[in-house]
Amino acid sequence: MKIALADLPAPFLAEPRVVAQAGSGHWHDFHEVANGLGLPGAPETGALPATLQLLGSLSTGARRKIEAALLARANGVVQPRFLKPIDPLAKILLTEGRVALSRSNDQLPAKMVVGFSKFATALADPGTEIRLPDAQARYDVEATLAVVLGKPASRASAGAAAKSIIGFTLMAEITHRDMFDAEWRTSNSLFAKNCPGLSPLGPAIWIAGTKELDPATEITLSVNGTLRQRFAVADFAHSIANATKAWSRCVLEPGDMVALGAAIAKPRPGAEIDSPIPIAAGDRIEVACAPIGTLTANLVA
Question: Structure pTM?
Fold first, then answer.
């Protein structure tokens, strides 16, 4: 099952809705389905964090009931306009290498989990046109897998951190490289990583836990149709559970995300991973992962 934030056709005009899909079927209003099943603890609002918290509280059997109900429904939306699947108050924490996004990746991730934070305002809707804030500046991109929390986690063990995970989505993490180089003199990268609306997120959240995520699952980045990054979950220098455990010291809430990308992907024999990848206006970027889908964006000056 996947869920997403979307603008739906009339009569859903008031606000974005959480929609859900089972298999390759149509998309349906998630809370209509959940309320129709009489699920215990179903929230009164359709806010994304509350939806994720509900899903995190349900048994596998209850989630299968939702999937069956989705498959049985008719008259869904074939292709809604997806929005970035994150609440405005949520945070996303990215795990990076020993030298955070150095142009020449040393492939030696730090022994401890390190990285940076990204605000929801820095994220863009999937499939959108992204306008670069300074057309003359340098930019680069890294493919990342974003781990979505369905339960709170605070100073959690690796096991508890893994149980707090409700799903996965994708992000193309775009950095303003000129700004980064200027900030780096102060050991900071907050501005370079948080240019408004620069990094696309989505297209949907695949509802699954770490046990359902095959370590061989691959994430790829293509620029203008050319494959530029390719790595598997098993390549991460820090496991998803350990990265989530480490970031739980910042207190994670339902809807928060922990991202892992090419910067901490250990190279396979004969297959070095170049990270980050330079990009410019006119480029089309695609981040893909089979169980999640493909995240696309077009860059313009």
Answer: 0.92
Closest CA to 101 of 274, 266, 245: 274
Residue 218: closest CA among 272, 275, 288: 288
Average pLDDT, integer, range 159-163: 97
Give residue-wise pLDDT tens across range 175-221: 999 999 998 888 778 899 999 999 999 999 999 999 999 999 999 99
Contact between residue 255 and residue 90 where contact means Cβ atoms under 8 Å apart: yes
**Rounded-to-integer distance, Cα 146 and Cα 265, Å:** 14
Q: Where, residue-wise, is CATH 3.90.850.10 in the chain? A: 91-300
How far apart are alpha carbons 252 and 258 in whole angstroms? 9
Distance CA(221)–CA(262), nearest Å, equals: 9
For residue 111, what pLDDT is reported? 65
DSSP 8-state secondary structure symbol assigned to residue 8: P
Q: Rounded to an integer, what distance in angstroms lies between the CA atom of residue 50 and that of residue 265? A: 32
Q: Measuring CA to CA, which residue among 205, 198, 180 is closest to residue 123?
A: 198
CATH of 91-300 given 3.90.226.10, 3.90.1210.10, 3.10.120.10, 3.90.850.10: 3.90.850.10
